[in-house]
């Protein structure tokens, strides 16, 4: 069940689950604090508490609390002050990468460790054509209809709908990705996609910048899917070359949705070692 926190910049939707050391999870594009992502059970099984906010423009968090990654990083500090953890482990996923990096760079005393999962950093940015398509598909008028059409398609032909999305999420043929996924992973991936909404958040995401990441002092683990079709590999390389205390792990996961891969076991093992160090 999500809640609303009242920060110095305005209301912020969030969810907290578990008990233990705090992990701040910054979900990626088209998701909110209640989105069914894959590593929640991993962190809970390790004895962590997850603090999961909806980023500006997603869920019930208004854009006004931080349209830029830098502004939202400052909002997160106000939010964390209200919850009282001195430091948090930060997980930045996909389009939330710039916010995670701004938080770790501007407020190093609040971040004990940083994990980036197929995260946008300062690498290759979308072309002008991609930006035009983003505005056409995810503007406030079109966005509800785009996702409603996908949900209708997903109910009528679930595997075909999943396959259609995988074409943009993997550099491998979609059929090849599907054959590697278990039936449960296929269903979990479809559930995530069917729950997706962009609100106004994704239009903010495409303008986010990560700032001067050489300021980051927290130990950092960068996880990159080898066959990610959504976030170019230059983003992982960009961060790995500029953060001092960093480890880059290129996972043989078949798509951007690394949680729903048979190689997720290896990813979780790598995170476990990193967290215990």
Automatic annotation (TrEMBL):
Give a Pfam family name: Abhydrolase_1
Q: Name one GO molecular function term.
A: hydrolase activity
For this UniProt record, the keywords arranged alphabetically read as follows:
Hydrolase
Alphabetical list of InterPro entries matching this protein: AB_hydrolase (IPR050471), AB_hydrolase_1 (IPR000073), AB_hydrolase_fold (IPR029058)
Query: What name is this protein filed under?
Result: Alpha/beta hydrolase
Q: Which species does this protein come from?
A: Ktedonosporobacter rubrisoli
Renumbered to this chain, the signal peptide range is none
Tell me the SUPFAM superfamilies matching this sequence. Answer: alpha/beta-Hydrolases
The segment(s) forming the AB hydrolase-1 domain are: 24-258
